[in-house]
Input
Amino acid sequence: MRRTLDRFRAVPAVVLVAAWLTACSTPPAAAPAPTSPSGAAAAPTAPGGGATGTPIKIGYEADANGTSAPIAAGMHIGTDLAVQQINAAGGINGHPIQVVYVDPQSDPTQASQMATQLIQNDKVDVLMGAVLSSECLVVQQLVAKLQVVYLPTFGCAAEEFSSQFCNRYSFRFEPVGRQTLGPLVDYIVKNYGKNWAMMYSDYAYGQSQLKAYTDALGALGAQITLPIPVPQNEPNLAPYVTKIPTDGSVNGVIINGLGAGDLTRVSLALGQYGIAPKIQVIGNSGRDVYGGSYPDFLKGSVAAPQPYISGQPPNNPYGEAYDKAFTDMAQKEPDWANIFGGADKALPFEAYYQYSAMTALKTAMISAKFTGRADTEALIGALEKINIPLGPDAPGGAISMNPQDHQGAQTEYVYRVAGPQEEEILATIPADQIPKFNSCHV
Output
């Protein structure tokens, strides 16, 4: 989910892809920050509001390398916004939140090592973040041994996190896999047909998404007739994109189960090789990755469900307040906002999962009277009971948690690209209608 239309008209797609990857290949050069004993950067604590107690420390794995850079930007902006608001309002029962960021470079080994350092050396009270499913699944098993609460905030979208490997200490508020597919699959089968090609990354996340789509389509008598696995970060997409037939033998192509950068590159390649205008596209990124305006060739494409669309639901003052606060924070953190092309190109939904994960954690901490790791059991109990209605802490829609497998749900929006800066909402799925896995018991 991430870049203006004039650029797309003037520059070939392949050049845009190269430029986007170059811009995202190196983490932004941030100003020197306080460091923890393990060398991790600590986020400054917002003053005021009476938060004068001992800080509650959160260790945050924000992968800022390569194609994960936009996700890291969302992690920093969304999380820092929530933390600023929490601390300004008095913190957690008078205790300010302090965030310690590290960058595991999308490496599961580093993710595990850094998580261990954050817990044992930096003495963080809660662990958050990590992007790739391979990272999150490793960290998930680690926290069960070290008995620290862990919340991935974006990415980590393999169903197995909640459907197979769930444990007492791990919670995920981002709906994934079949949770987001029901209304989308129902819509595309009814409106376009039953035979689909699908491009996905050939690793754990992509494979889990292929299975989720296969199961959801199969329930409606539809199928993936042409699976197209793509090696992760494959530089040459031509051999894969050009496999998609445009002769009517498939009703469209699903692009899902791809890493953030790969999804953008694939959607651009569909235009570059003339596929997108000839075939229905399902699963493209939001307009932020295209400079704030969708390219012409994606008009009519149907995007993957999103938890936040500005202006939805209509007349939503909480969404308007979040939009403004997000823009203000993006302007305060230009190094991260520049990954999206500047604060004026960064769009609020890019950081929404990260923001809402932190507000949900705040709600649970306040309920549990959390002051540090000694209160972990109380925090677990409070997280299991999370049920936040539309409001300041959930400006996109309700947020809830399933206590059985620690998999959350949020209101989701399915939409179609209607113009360069227009989204047409096709379906709204309330949090209480998001399907549950219920196949794993903590």
